Amino acid sequence: MCQGINPETAGNAGQSAPRGMRYHIALVGRRNAGKSSLLNMLAGQEISIVSDTKGTTTDAVAKPYELLPLGPVTFFDTAGIDDEGELGELRVKATRRILCRADMALLVTDEQGLTDAELSLIRELQALKLPFMLVFNKADLCPPSADDLAFCQAQQIPFIAVSAINGLGNREIKQLMYDLAPAELKAEPLLAGDLYHSGDSIICVVPIDMAAPKGRLILPQVQILREALDNNAMAMVVKETELPKALDAMTTPPALIISDAQVIKPVSAMVPDNIALTTFSTLFARFKGDLSAMVAGAEAFDQLKDGDRVLISEACSHHAQDDDIGRVKLPNWIRSYSGKTLTFDVVAGHDFPDNLEDYAVVVHCGACMFNRTEMLRRVRECQRRGVPITNYGVAISKLQGVLSRVIAPLAHGL
């Protein structure tokens, strides 16, 4: 048994965690199976509207939560998988999009037990390789049948009987969610903490240009700094123009320099070869995705042909500036490197096209706003379709001729 699972103390601290650092748990099932009631029980609050009328939940309801000791999670209450009509079809599609972003699913059924709808959804979850459990809700009205329990045992599907109305099984279902979570989620995640030691110094190189948010740092920079503090390291933040002064002022060379990818070429020229150097986005390629796949995907720039299409994919939506990295800088660098006439398409947020085969390469942002599961699904889908995928930091390092140096500190992970 894990320590610390307590429905009275697992509360709302997770609301302050970055969205991409939260574990996503989807509540799915038929209409009126009690998904909304279950979410309210799990959160200890009236989050979702509960009604006997089928189809009360339309758009997915998201609830950030601190599920100790697992950490920050987000529960998604979704529309019924059996919704009907034109609007119902759209709601079901929205539910399936949530499943593609989820780390775990709670398949909720009621006193009817396992119907064709649940059996179909089980096959879908298994095809997605998504960890899930069966939640037999309304156990106060009718316990799960012997046949349904035998099916779960034969299929090795975790299950639990609960009553969202009276709180039966509240502690146990949270324990089961923890047990079902993959080992990598329970382990302390590392961005760069394995690349230096306690007492070491690191330097973060952060250019301030038109795209820099006013009055603050971007999330990857903040996370690197916080990790350094947690690891008792000393972190310095400088612009690329001040880097030579910072290096000259240090009596002991830094253990690691982490640069914004956009200035990696001049930074690489400033930093002596004996100092480890990488980029924020390269670290996120490992942290959120698959660094080996991203490095291999960057080789596609050497095979581009006239007329090829390149997909630029970003995890967040933002107002594009005149020097926007995804819409301006990267396309210009890729055209200059390849010497080819190319077409660039840009998608943002959770949009990801079905026609991946139309693209010669996918160039993804660092995915700081995604959880690891969603980013890995994109990587795996590109691999399944035979489409190379890389990310901004790896791509820029390749295009600037410094990729081998940037990935050298992470070579043990390739």
Would you summarize the structure shown here?
By secondary structure, the protein is of the alpha/beta class. The chain has helices at residues 35-43, 85-101, 116-127, 146-155, 170-180, 183-186, 219-230, 243-249, 264-270, 280-288, 291-298, 325-338, 372-385, 392-399, 403-407, and strands at 23-29, 61-67, 71-77, 104-109, 132-136, 159-161, 201-205, 234-238, 256-259, 276-279, 309-314, 343-348, 361-364, 389-391.
Key structural traits:
alpha/beta; 414 residues; six-stranded mixed sheet; 3 domains; 14 strands; Rossmann fold; four-stranded parallel sheet
| Count of alpha and pi helical runs | 15
Give the mean pLDDT: 86
The largest pleated sheet is described as: 6 strands, mixed
What CATH calls the topology of the largest domain is Rossmann fold
- Count the E strands: 14
What would you call the shape? globular
User: How many structural units, i.e. domains?
Assistant: 3
